[in-house]
Amino acid sequence: MADEKYTSAYTGTKIDEAVGHDHYAHDYVVECSLTGDWAYRKWASGIAECWCYKEIKNIEITQSDKWAGTDMYYKNLGRLPNYPFTFVEYPIVSATIQSTLGYALGIYNYSDYGYNNPGTAYLFLPSMPNTTGNEINVTLNYYVIGKWK
Prior knowledge:
By secondary structure, this protein is mainly β.
């Protein structure tokens, strides 16, 4: 219907038509840049998105990294750098991990996330890596979307 309105999942406001990423049909980028490990875009509607690609090399996995009572291993990868700006509410964070190990890896963010940082990343492995010295290289990919104003 021509007079039907849609509710934005990000801003809660009514919009005339649904478009990609739930932006207003007339929305436009007001600021974009690369800063440190992050790239970002701010939209006129108040939506902001940023993404990060971070390589972490020579992560050593040892028996002391074994999760008690399981065959799983985990490693604290530390906190990522702060977002390039502060969100006004908790953003939606999507994190993926890439590796050439040939089996599943997982990534988990600890509860120290906030409006300006995605928190501490943990790497989970289903078994001890079969690599020389049990060292692995991974690439973390983060995509974050939320409100900036």
